[in-house]
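Encode chain A's predicted structure.
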Amino acid sequence: MSQQYKNIKTAENVFTIIEKIEQLDQPTCSELTAHVGLSASSVYNYLRTLEEWGYVIRNDGRYRLTLKFLQKGRAVRNSYPIMHAATEPIDVLSKVIDEYISVFVKEGVHAVMIHEANSHHAVHVPPPFLGEPFHLGKVPQGKVILAQMPESDRREILSGNGLDSETTERLETELEDIRERGLAVDEGQSHENIWAVAAPVKVGDEIYGSLLISTVLHRLDERRANRELPNLLVQTVKEVEHRLSRYDFDDLYSNW
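Encoded structure for chain A:
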């Protein structure tokens, strides 16, 4: 049974204002007031507080978020071991294969992108920005993580996905195939005209995340899709796993 909680309205207002500042692109206090359902004086007080804490900056009466969010986001991203282990290998592979590669970690029921590498010819899978969450059961980078999870945890995630029993059963069969193969291939199912192959990064029983190579379908021939890119991805995953197995992360984090 999930624990009951009481929603804290003040905290909800803070996050609503932060998100609206991002969405409205440097709004004035009046513009924010029209979108958040609070009085102008309340919005102003929230803005001044956020400004004092360094999360908002005011310029000519307009407000924008500060780079303090980047500082906090970077710290969170660097707390994931795979970020340290995968950055160099995927940057190198991206240049070799001339394709877009990204790193994902599990956060709740989502696979979230924490790093991307692409050459000037690579195609971004929309939306092309870090921190984008994808449900584990809906995309290859999530399915390879889901397939490696303990059965009880996997079923809990699937049961909360709003899928009917038939769809859940098909997904379970797909996850079993992914588990046996060690890869998930997506030929335009998640994003039209986008081909992708994903592999889990795992050391022992611990799942650190997944790597994804993606490109447009028309750039691929059968050999590249069936052999070359999957094989190179597997080799890169092995390198990342090797790094994860030998890193002293306590010492590594002290240098970031």
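The chain has two domains: 9-66, 75-253.
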